[in-house]
C-alpha cells in the first residue's frame, strides 16, 4: 500500500512538471488517452429491462474527441462473456490496418482481457462513431461518437457554432444480440425492430397508444438564437431512418470527414452506418418544445409506426411541452426515384479546406484513368450448405481464423484465397475466404449492385471513396456518361437502393488489408463482406507499419500467444506507469502534448 501511494505521488509530481514543460514544446503530434471498460448493463430503453453493452457504464458510450493528426490511445478492457473487437469506421488508420478492429486484421480480445489500440487520425476531420464488430454485438450497444476537430490554423467553412450536439440514432430490438444471433443461425429473419432509440433512450410519449407510459426519453437543451452543429449517426442494426426537427431547417455541412456544399433540408435520410453534420439555428418561438424525430424509412410505414424515435428540443425559455402530431416524414415511399434525389444532391465543397490547407477539390479524381473495375452484386439471403447466408458475387465470406495480414507476415498457408471475382459469375454460391487482390496506387471503380429487396449501406475501412453515381436497374458501362466527375462527395459509407446500384471511385494509396462490407448487421453477420488486400511490392517500412508489439495471436498462430494475468492493483499501476513512461519519453524528446 505504501509503495502504491509513493508511486502515485511520484506520478503526480512528474505529470505536473510535464504539464509545465509542455507549454514550451512544439514538435510532435499530441496524444489523447482513453480507457474503455466494455461490460453489460441492465437498461430499459423501450420500457422492458434488457441487457445492453455499455462503455465505462454508459449507454451509448462516451465521445472520443481528438484533433487532426492526434495520436489516439484506447485501452479496451473486455468485461463481456465473449470475444470483443472495437472498430473505428471512417478513421483511415493510415499505414496501420493492424488497429482496424475486424477479424481480417485482428485476433479478438478474449473475455476478461484488455488490449490497447493506438492509431493516428492523420489528415482527417469530421464526424464518425465506434462500435464492436463481432457477433452482432452492436445490436446491443457498445457504440459511441467520434469527433475529429480541425486544427486551429485551418478555417472551417462556416461561422463557428455556439455548441456541439451529438445525436446517436438507431433501430432497436428488445431481444439482445445473442437472441438475434440465434434467430439468424436458425434461418429466420430478424423481423421488424421494436423501436428506435435516440441517444440510447426510447420515444417521448407523443402517442398514448403507440408509446407506453414511463419510458425515459432524450431532451436536447438549447438557447434561443444560437446555432449548433448537430452531428447525427445511424448506429442501428438494419433500418434506414429519416431524421427531422420540428419547424427547424437542417443545413448540411459535413459527412464522414468531408465538408459539403451547404444546403437546407427539412428532413434527411440517414442510412445504417452513416454520419452527418448539420447546422441548426434555434430561430423559432419558445411557445413550446419541439419534436426531434427518427423514423423508419423505405418500409411499409403504416405497419412500422412503432419504429419511431422521438426526443425533445427544449429552448431555455420554452413555455410548455411539445404536443400534437409529429412532423411528417417524406411521402415518396412509392416513388423511390424522388427519394434518390436527396443523396444525389450531396456535393463536396471543393473550395473548403478539410484537414489540410489545400482545398478539398484539389484532387481531380474525374481526370484519373480507372485501372480496374469491380462489380459487386448482392442478392437476398439464400441457403448454402444447409445454412442461411448472404453473398457478394456468389461468395459468402467465412470469418478468418487467422487475420489475413498476420498470416502473410508469418507465412501461414491456406488462411485465405486471393481469388475474389471482379464481377458476378454464373456458378453455384459458396462459402469461402475469398479476398480481393488489389494493386497499390491503383485507381479503381467499384459498382455496388443491390439485387436484394432491402436498402443497404456499404462501407470500406481505411478509405474514403467518391460517390460518382447511383440509379435503379442494372449497371452498364454506358452509365459512366452520367457520373459526377467534379464535386462528388467523398465518404466511407454509401447507400445502395434495392434494385439499384451505386458507383464509387477509390484511390488505393493506403497499404494494408481493408474490410469491404455491408453495414446492415444481419447481412454482414450472414457473410456479405470481403477484404481488399493492398500490398506494396517494394515495401521498405514507409508505406506500411509492422505488427504492433502487443499484437494478439489466434488461429494457426495461437501457440505464439501468451496469457494475460490481471489484478486491480497491477492493472492500475501498469496503466499509470505506462502514462508516466510515455510522458517522460516525450518530455525528454521535447515533444509532449504540443
What can you see in these coordinates?
The protein has helices at 2-22, 177-185, 336-339, 341-345, 404-409, 521-525, 568-589; strands at 31-43, 50-55, 64-67, 71-78, 86-87, 114-120, 126-132, 144-149, 163-172, 195-198, 219-222, 227-234, 241-245, 250-255, 258-265, 268-270, 275-281, 290-296, 308-315, 372-378, 382-384, 387-389, 395-397, 430-432, 436-439, 443-450, 456-460, 465-472, 490-491, 493-496, 500-507, 512-518, 529-535. The protein is mainly beta. The protein has 7 helices and 33 strands. Mean pLDDT is 90; it is low at 1-27 and 567-594. The strands form 8 sheets. It has a 6-stranded mixed β-sheet with strand order 10-9-12-17-14-15, with no helix packed on it. This is Monocopper oxidase-like protein SKU5.
Distance between the termini: 35 Å
Give the overall pLDDT as a whole number.
90
Number of strands: 33
Global Rg? 24 Å
Strand content: 25-35%
Report the uncertain regions. 1-27, 567-594
The count of helical stretches stands at 7
How much helix is in the residues? 10-25%
| Shape field | globular
| Main structural class | mainly beta
Main sheet properties: 6 strands, mixed
Oligomer: single chain
| Strand line-up across the major sheet | 10-9-12-17-14-15
Protein name: Monocopper oxidase-like protein SKU5
